[in-house]
Write a structure and sequence with these properties.
By secondary structure, this protein is of the alpha+beta class. The protein has one domain (9-85): Winged helix-like DNA-binding domain superfamily/Winged helix DNA-binding domain (Arc Repressor Mutant, subunit A). The protein is 37% helix and 10% strand. The protein contains 3 helices and 3 strands; from the N terminus they run αααβββ. Strands 2-1-3 form a 3-stranded antiparallel β-sheet. β1 (65-68) and β2 (71-72) form a beta hairpin. α1 (9-20) packs across α2, α1 packs across α3 (48-60) and α2 crosses α3 (48-60).
Length: 90
């Protein structure tokens, strides 16, 4: 990824929270949605590690819930396919 500029942590956090908080958003969103929203080109997959780190950070601060198979998981210990959503209290 030659000289590629990656979005800041704040930009990734904001993108995740904006997507999850849309009035028409489903209960949870896929991390790929956030990566695609942040990507200025077709290389959105390279942003997935940033999205995952941001999701963990947001979940640890109580601003996001990470779901696996429809159930909340420990943000410091999960693997596989996951989804992101706002806490039940908004």
């Amino acid at each position: 990824m030659n000289d590629r500029q990656f979005p800041s942590e704040d930009a990734v956090d904001a993108a995740i929270l904006a997507l999850a908080g849309r009035p028409d958003a489903p209960k949870s969103i896929a991390p790929e949605e956030a990566a695609r929203a942040l990507a200025s080109d077709a290389d959105w997959q390279s942003l997935l590690p940033l999205v995952r780190r941001a999701a963990v950070r947001l979940a640890q601060s109580g601003r996001l819930v990470i779901y696996r198979k429809g159930k909340p998981v420990d943000p410091s210990d999960f693997r596989g396919v996951y989804r992101l959503g706002l806490p039940p209290d908004g």
